[in-house]
Every structure is written in structure tokens, then in C-alpha cells.
Amino acid sequence: METLEQIRDRLAAAFPQARLEIVPNGSPAAQDSLWMDSAQALAIARWLRDDPALRFDYASNVTGVDWLDTTVKESTKSVQVIDGVERLIEKKTERLIPGFLEVVYHLYSMELKHGPLILRMRTGNRSGEVSVPSLTPVWRSAEFQEREVFDLFGIVFEGHPDLRRILMWDGFEDFPMRRDYVEPDDYEFEPTPHDEVLEKAQRHHPEVSS
Amino acid sequence: MNSPQTAAFVSGYEVRAKSGANGEFGGELLEIAMGPHHPSTHGVFRMDVVLDGERVVKLKPVFGYLHRNHEKIAEDATYLASIPYTDRLDYFCSLTNNWAYCLAVEKLAGLQVPERAEYIRVITAELTRLQNHACLGGFLLQDMGASGTPLMYAFREREKILDLFESLTGARMMCNYMRFGGCRCDLPDGWLEQTRQVLAGFPRFLDEFERLLNENEILMSRTQGVGVLSSDLAVNAGVTGPMLRASGVNYDLRKVDKYGIYDRFSFRIPLGDHGDVYDRYMMRILEMRESFNILSQALRDIPEGPIVDPKAKIRGFRPKAGEAYGRIEAPKGELGFYLISDGSPNPYRYRVRAPSFINLTILEDMCLGHHVADVVIILGSFDIVLGEVDR
Questions:
Q1: Among residues A71, B81, B138, B245, which one has the fewest Cβ atoms lying within 10 Å of its Cβ?
Q2: Which residue in B69, B110, B239 is closest to A176 by CB distance?
Q3: With contact defined as beta carbons under 8 Å apart, do A201 and A186 qualify?
Q4: Does the beta-carbon distance from A139 to B69 stay under 8 Å?
Q5: What count of Cα atoms within 13 Å lies in the side-chain half-sphere of residue B138?
């Protein structure tokens, strides 16, 4: 198989507007991945599937990753002259790196028996802009897996034929695989609560008496 | 076949009454829920089926009844603590689940597995495959109405293999046996001899099983030409395992990835021609023969030596930040684990690529136009386990 750099260069030639970036992987597995922006993702996916030298006809694994907002603390030291005396002044700044949700595709070729090529797509942030294009039209195997990512991470796949919850029930509202998900106190009301359950029940339903 | 495309992609499907072309008698479509407690669904699994007479015009699988968010639990636990949880994914094949997870962690942390441990892994994994495929044959026949006999024959063989697992790992089904960089304990005395004895009787069981079933007229008429899966669709839909090979696609990770030491054994990959239920049944029978070959070679060649990589830490195991995807050929298809480490004792992201779950994607395509009774055996030929589908 071609190296990831070669694939990236050929992709960049075929899609001049697309933003492509290699995400290095620090582990001994050395499976680097390719981050593409979502604007042309569908066309890039088709290209990867149909290119005669690559033929990634099999999307093995589709999954989501939640990256939280992180704050980076930086301190800069500088020597300034104040009232004729040199002083070391330390400035502390906090920079917020906004979090995002990520979709990861592991592609293999069943025809040429090579792989994996790891594709990543990122959403704008974690709350408002959470949509990426669905790659189900290219690889049918993404259908249930994208539904699962939607269900558990809340990433919306545009162009998915049947996007609804798959593992959680339909009335469920939160996204349990997000890193900041807090489990609710109680899922269902118990008719004869006692001990801990009673305390929780009273918190939610003050009319419950012991 | 008149299939109304109602395109209502929310739960609670819209079903329109059908009337004949000239307004004569036209029955209505019938919506039934097969499951979640139907005995043919192999667990708690529901299919919402829309029927026109006895023909299936729409089918939506509904699952999640057994969902316990395995991935979230694993992210809150250390790497080691997740091994027993992987047993519960596909509870028929706990040893292959262990192997897939350990393989992913070994890739993530760069661990080497000693020779003897690799042999033990191959032996236990192929024994797992034997008992899984034997039971699948039994369950499939049970779904077809051959009540009991083939299933009991298969369970008799499975019992012997589970006894081997019990003497090796202490548990019959939840083995929790493999560790990062090797296995938990060495083989007990006489285990190899015991295994050879169990295996010596296995070809006889297979001959008997095949003589009983392969050319059985009812089996052939119920399965041949039913639930045909074309190779193009199978590849595109990510179907793996014996189901894929029944459609004629030569893709077996034991040959493609050569993980572990599979490049040392000579074995063949059986392939099907038609991609129907009968081919999928035959694929399991033929794979059992090949697994038997692998086992004979592995039992012959297994060396003495250590069983765990001395560099593998049990306590304070913290892989470097990075990610890895490891996959093996589990009896049901490609079982993959995707791990992201951030350098802490717990995985940052832990993902199971479960073969049963992804194979179900095309259940509807394969059932459309068939009788409702065929849905049961098409699902039976998938070989799903709900512990893995729902995770």
C-alpha cells in the first residue's frame, strides 16, 4: 500500500480545496490517520473507494471520540525596568482550546487486502455545530455504526438514510458516551423506595413520604 | 411483489392499507413484532416486520435491550479490569474476545507475546471456533424445526470442549484467561493429552453431523436459494466472517493479517458459491474441519517456555499516549478493538467493533420478499449473540 503521505498528496491534487492533515500517532502501533474537513468528505470517500490503486471497499470500524474543552495555562517571564529597577515580571494567561467531537473510520481493502487507512472528521464544537456528512452512501457498513455514534455521542450525520437512536430507547435525551455525561439519579420511579433509593426519590419527587 | 415505500423513518412505522389494482379485494398489511421474547431471536432481539400475506415487505431490527454501555464502563476501568468484561460480549466465545482485546492493547503498548503463549492462544481460539460453529449448526436446525436432535449432538461436543476450558481457566464460559503479553497461567498437567483425546473424537462427530444433515431433503429445500447475499453487497455492508466467505469473498484475517502465528499453519479458507443459507451452514462445517487441522498442527508443535512477556506490567500499566486498532477473526466475523490512550491507567476511548452488530445491517435486504418463516432461519444463519450486538 502507498504510504499515508503519498495518499495525502494524491488526494490534495485531486481535491485542491480540501483541507487534509496527517494526525500522528504516538503509540508503537504507528497507525497514523488522515484528518479531512467535512466539506468534501463524501467525494473524498468515493475517491478512496474507487481509486484503482487503493480500492478501500470496506469500512471496518466507525466510531466517535469526544474531546473536551481544555484550558492551557501559559506563563511568560519578562524583565522590565520599573522605576529604574529591573524586575522579573511573570504574566499568566489561560487559553481555552475548544473541544470537538470526532468521527473515526477504519478503512481496509478486501480486494487488494491492505489497510488500514484511518480517516477522521471533526465537528465545529461540542454543542451547536455537531454535524458531519454521512458516509453511509459510500459504505453501507457505516449505517448502523453511524446511528450508534449519533445515539451515544450526539454527532448528526447529514444524509444518513435512517438516523435515529439504536441502542438507547427513543425517548432518551442525553448522549451517554460523552466525557461529561452525568448519570441521572434515578431512571424509573420505584413504588416502594427505601434507603438510598428513597433519598433519591425524595430529591426528585418531594411528595414521596417515607 | 408490491412493496409500498412508506419512508417513515421514525419508530412506529406508517403502514398503509393496500388495495388491489382494480379495487377488488385487497388485504391490509400486517405489522408484527417478532421478539423480543421470541425463541428464534437468540436473545432479546426484536424485528418489526411488515407482512403482505406471508411475504415480508419491510423489516426493521430493534435492539438495545441488553445495552449496558460496555464502552463507558471500560473507560472508567483500568486496562486490565476490562478483560473479564470482554468475556460478556460474545459469551459463546470468551477466549477470542480476550484475544482481540489483548491484541489491541499489545499493539498500543508494543508488547511481544512469547511463543508458547501464542500457541496456547491459537489452540484455545480454534477450540472456541469449533464449539461455536457446532452450536450454530444445532441452533439453525432448531430454528428450522428439527427439534432437539442436531442441537443435542452439537452440545454433546461443546460440553467436552467446555470441560477443557474449565480445567484450563477455571470457568466454562467466562474464561478471563488471556493477559497483555501472554496468558494468565500455564497449561495444567495432562491438558494437552486430554485435548488430543477430545479432538480424536471430533471428526467422527462431524461425519455423523454431516451424514445426518447435509443432504437432508427438508434442510435443502428450506435453505437453498433462501436469503441470498451477493458478494458486492456483502463487502460494501462490511459483513465479515463465515457469512462473507459464503458469498465467495476470500477474506479471512487469519490469512490476511496473519496475526499471532497463523502464518505457520497450513489450512484452507472454504468459500461458498451462492451466498444462501445453505452455503452459510456448509461454511461452518467446512471451517470446523480446517480448525481441526490447525489444532492438530498446534498441538504437535507447541514448545515449552514462558507464557507471558516479562516486560508486561500488571500493576501501574500505563501505555504511552496514542491509539491502536487490533482485530482478529472471531468465529462470528471480524472482532476489533479500538483504543485511545492518553497516558493514564484508563483508556481514553475504548471501542468494540462487534461482528454480529454490523452483520445485522443487511438483515432487511436479505429478508425482503421471503416468507415470514424464512426470516427465522435467515437470522439463524447470521449467528448473532445479543451480548455483542447490544454491548
A1: A71
A2: B69
A3: yes
A4: no
A5: 19
In A, which residues are within 8 Å of B108 by CB distance? 27-29
- Three-state SS at B323: strand
Beta bridge partners of A133: A158
Encode A7-37: b = buried (16+ Cβ within 10 Å), e = exposed: bbeebeeebeebebeeeebebbbebbbbbbe
- Alpha carbon B164 to its chain centroid, in Å, reads 21
The string of pLDDT tens digits covering residues A90-110 is: 888 888 888 889 999 999 998
What was the ipTM of the complex prediction? 0.83
- Mutation for A interface: B10, B67, B233, B360, most A CBs within 10 A: B67
Quick check: A147 contacting B, CB < 8 Å? no
Grid coordinates representing B171 are: 470457568
| pTM of the entire predicted model | 0.85
B105, β-bridge pairs: none
**N- to C-terminal Cα separation, chain A:** 68
Query: Which residues of chain B does A170 touch, with a Cβ-Cβ cutoff of 8 Å?
Result: 11
Q: What is the percentage of chain A residues whose pLDDT exceeds 70? A: 92
CA distances B299 to B41, B241, B254, Å, are: 37, 25, 18
**Cβ of residue A70 closer than 8 Å to a chain B Cβ:** no
What averages of pLDDT result for each successive group of 10 residues across chain B (391 residues)? 41 48 61 79 84 85 89 90 90 91 90 91 93 89 84 90 92 90 89 92 90 86 88 91 91 89 91 90 92 92 87 81 90 92 90 92 89 88 88 85
